[in-house]
Amino acid sequence: MLTIVFFALSGLDVLDALDVVDKPSLIEWIYSLQVLPTDDKSNLSRCGFRGSSHIGVPYNSSKGPGAPHTYDSGHVAMTYTGLACLVILGDDLSRVCREACLAGLRALQLEDGSFYAVPEGSENDMRFVYCAACICFMLDDWSGMDRQRAIDYIRRSTSYDSGIGQGAGLESHGGSTFCAVASLCMMGNLQEVFSERELKRIRRWCILRQQNGFHGRPNKPVDTCYSFWVGATLELLDVFQYTNFEKNRSYILSTQDRLVGGFAKWPDSHPDPLHTYFGICGLSLMGEAELQKVHPALNISVRAFESLRRLHEAWRQKST
Ligand SMILES: [Zn+2]
């Protein structure tokens, strides 16, 4: 599935070890997961990337057209991670049907500004707002969403304690706070949406999440992945340097499995791809030697981020 491939690929990239993968065949595989517009374009609102080949649509890694299938549609997290994987692999995104991806994305946004994951409807919350922001940012085109509505949704999700929840009235959470702050950073208007006083309170809420590592909510146990979610939020808010790196680092390292090498959420528990990736990212944020720097908002290596910016520059020159 694409999200797990993203954890693996981006993790290898941050470890500066991407040479172990067969880039051309992975790029072909990712493109084969693109839900392409059909000849009559009747499926535009269903376009994006699917997570795997499970429903058996014909293999097609070219630019189209797609084959009609009643149950075929993109998933916002797969479109986000699919595009991110292509960027990490150094692809120029020339086979991405940008218009179709953006049309598919627009179809997922609700009245309240949040996003569904799939066109049939699903949970709708801050996670998918973040995925949508990443897609628009990577495609360098914000016509994929009503930005003002998304901003209103983020504002309404700010809780009484100044952390940000998955939606209005929900408990503040380190993951949704990251999704909200990173989305606003990618939109380029964090400072306009929150006043300096509000930003200070968000910083305070985040900084209080450090125990030795970080937890996602008050009174919860620390968990490796929050070293990234909360750490990256603090980095975006320019105060990560005031946290205790030594304690954070030794917590993350205490969750590494000595036999298979991956990271788990807690010491002495099973490692998994998500926590392995975010453990690496958490270490990278602190400038761990021999790790590539990770971009705190888009959550890919700074090197991949720079190549994306060069791509955007080339697109802009082409269109003028
Ligand atoms: Zn976790």
Automatic annotation (TrEMBL):
Keyword annotations: Magnesium, Metal-binding, Prenyltransferase, Repeat, Signal, Transferase, Zinc
Signal peptide bounds: 1-17
Name of the top EC class for this enzyme: transferase
Enzyme Commission (EC) number: 2.5.1.59
Required co-factors: Zn(2+); Mg(2+)
Domain Prenyltransferase alpha-alpha toroid: 2-300
Keyword Metal-binding: yes
Keyword Signal: yes
Molecular function GO labels: CAAX-protein geranylgeranyltransferase activity; metal ion binding
Enzymatic reactions: geranylgeranyl diphosphate + L-cysteinyl-[protein] = S-geranylgeranyl-L-cysteinyl-[protein] + diphosphate
Gene3D superfamilies in alphabetical order: 1.50.10.20
A Gene Ontology cellular-component term: CAAX-protein geranylgeranyltransferase complex
Family that this chain belongs to: Belongs to the protein prenyltransferase subunit beta family.
Family annotation (PANTHER family): GERANYLGERANYL TRANSFERASE TYPE BETA SUBUNIT, GERANYLGERANYL TRANSFERASE TYPE-1 SUBUNIT BETA
Subunit-level organization: Heterodimer of FNTA and PGGT1B. PGGT1B mediates interaction with substrate peptides.
Protein known as: Geranylgeranyl transferase type-1 subunit beta
